[in-house]
User: Fold this.
Amino acid sequence: MAEVPALRLKIIDVVKIPSAEEGRIGKYDTVVTYQDANGRTRVVTIPWEFLEGKTEDEQFAIITEYIRKEEGFRKAMIGREITI
Assistant:
């Protein structure tokens, strides 16, 4: 995955919801909504069990890593062209 330069992002919402993913029925996910400096809003979904029982600092580190991975993937895909 592409290396992502430092970005300033703001977490604007964190919500725990029942998972809609196949195979996760009966479990919960955490949806984190974040925004970049240009006002673009994006979300990442984290299985609740990855955050459950962790300290606030540990949860923040996990959320940060999920956002970092998502932004790296997004940056790697921007500009690519496809033919279908």
